[in-house]
Structures are given as C-alpha cells and as structure tokens.
C-alpha cells in the first residue's frame, strides 16, 4: 500500500446519479471501491441502527453463499461475499471504530490514490457529524450531486412503487400515490431527501470549501463536467459511459397535475439553488418558469 488515500464521501442526492458515479469510479484505474456501494456507517452511528444493518447484511451473506453453493459462475459473487464478510466484522463491534472503517475502505487498494463511500443518506446527517467525517483522513473530499427537484422526486416515487408493487399493473397508480404522499409531506414541512436547502447549508458549515464540490447531475454527465469532478478528486481524466444509465427505474410519465403540484411544493428548493448556482441547467429553469409564470 502506498501512502494515505484520499477518502471521497458522496453524500447524495438520492436518485441523482450516484449509482452511475459508483460504476464509473469502480472501473477507474486510480480508484478502489468495495462492492458495497452504500455503507451507511455514519448514519448507523448517528441513529443507533447498527442492529438493523447487521440483520440486512446477514441476509445478504446468506443469499450470496446460497448462490455460490448452487454453482453460480459469476466471479463477482466471491468478491461480494468477501466484502460483505469484511464489512460484517467492522459493524459487528459496538461504537465507532474509524481505523476499522478506513481499513475496510483501503483493503486491497494497492497504490490507487482514492477510496470512496457513496451513501446518499449522509446528506441528512447533522453538521457536527459531517465535520467529524471531514477529518477522518488527511485528505477528504465531499461530493453532493443535484438533480432537478421534480425529476428527482418522481424518480424516487417510482423506485418506492417498484419495490412495493405486487403486479406491474399496480405500478402507475402506486407511483402516483407515492408522489402524492411525498408532495403532501413537503408541504407539511417534513424535510427529507429533497431538502437541498438543509443539505447544502449543513455541508457548507461543516466542510472546508476546498474539500466540497456541489455539482449538478446534468453537468457531471458531460465531458467537461466529469473532467471537473475528476480534477477535484485528484484522479486521471477518464471518459465516462454517458449512454449507460444505472438504476434509472421503470419508465412512467409524471401526470400533469402532480407535476404542477410538485413544482409549487419544491419552489423554495429551486429558488435556493438558483441563488447560489445561477448557471442552472435548462430543465431546472423550465420548471422554475412554470411555477413563477
């Protein structure tokens, strides 16, 4: 192992290109990413949910062992099992153990200069926890990806509906109900994954400016945008496969009435982002225009 790696925390946003980024970095020659994309280590510590994640991990390990025993030829399964067992050893202990956490990220990296934890749930963490994360290594980098708020919310609604549906015929109505529920929660003041205002404010208060990049997903998915991101991370400028989308979800058009209501509910998010990042992508500007006329 050569030197101390840079540690990247990609803290979201949910449904804003984090799976595509994981795939790109996983294949990048300067990066070492384990096969578990979302570790949830710091939200486990913050909320005391280690027991729940241990249970989920045990179930995953059992499924991987069963698949290997059944003769599944994919070599990636063996790697996934090794990674899961290594991670089980880290979260099996009570309390915080940053040495074990960093050891897990770095195990097997060789001389590659960057390791990463891509967990969108970290955007919900309080300022104090984010600041502590920024100091876990001499070089840390934080990335927060922004996607058009209405498109992101509808993508999340479709994801939730796909997980819960019993039959594909239920999908359109269930996705609409999920969207309706989330719009109502936003209008009632509930803050969740859509809250760019809170996440950006906490990140800027907790993380030094030279360690933080806030970038539009739409920008990342271009040659100049990806080059900017890779320069920020200190890794080689490698072209991305922009044609291949990861976990894009089941296609379904957003009903016009829900789109209009979502634009109104999310108007403060559009306005906040526009005030801090004036060079908005076109789809953001279109949705802002529809709200304000």
Automatic annotation (TrEMBL):
An example Gene Ontology molecular-function term: sulfotransferase activity
Entry-linked InterPro entries: NST/OST (IPR037359), P-loop_NTPase (IPR027417)
Gene3D superfamilies named among the record's database cross-references: P-loop containing nucleotide triphosphate hydrolases
Annotated transmembrane regions: none
Record's keyword terms, sorted: Transferase
Stated name of the protein: Sulfotransferase
Source organism of the structure: Paragemmobacter kunshanensis
């Amino acid at each position: 192992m050569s030197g101390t790696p840079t540690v990247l925390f990609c803290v979201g946003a949910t449904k804003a290109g984090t799976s595509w980024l994981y795939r790109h970095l996983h294949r990048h020659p300067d990066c070492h990413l384990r096969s578990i994309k979302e570790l949830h280590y710091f939200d486990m510590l913050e909320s005391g949910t280690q027991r729940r994640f241990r249970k989920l991990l045990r179930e995953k390990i059992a499924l991987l062992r069963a698949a290997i025993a059944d003769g599944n030829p994919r070599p990636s399964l063996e790697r996934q099992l090794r990674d899961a067992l290594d991670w089980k050893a880290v979260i099996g202990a009570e309390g915080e153990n940053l040495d074990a956490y960093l050891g897990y990220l770095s195990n097997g990296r060789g001389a590659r200069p960057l390791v990463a934890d891509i967990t969108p749930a970290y955007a919900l963490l309080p300022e104090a926890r984010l600041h502590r994360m920024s100091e876990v290594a001499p070089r840390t980098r934080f990335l927060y990806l922004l996607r058009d708020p209405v498109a992101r919310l509808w993508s999340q609604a479709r994801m939730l509906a796909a997980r819960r549906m019993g039959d594909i015929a239920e999908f359109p109505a269930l996705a609409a109900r999920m969207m309706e529920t989330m719009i109502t929660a936003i209008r009632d003041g509930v803050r969740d994954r859509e809250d760019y205002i809170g996440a950006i404010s906490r990140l800027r208060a907790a993380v030094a400016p030279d360690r933080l990049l806030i970038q539009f997903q739409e920008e990342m998915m271009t040659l100049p945008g990806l080059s900017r991101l890779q320069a920020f991370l200190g890794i080689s400028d490698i072209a991305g496969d922009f044609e291949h989308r990861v976990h894009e979800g089941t296609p379904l058009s957003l009903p016009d009435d829900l789109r209009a209501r979502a634009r109104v509910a999310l108007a403060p998010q559009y306005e906040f982002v526009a005030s801090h990042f004036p060079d908005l992508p076109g789809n953001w500007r279109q949705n802002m225009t529809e709200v304000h006329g």
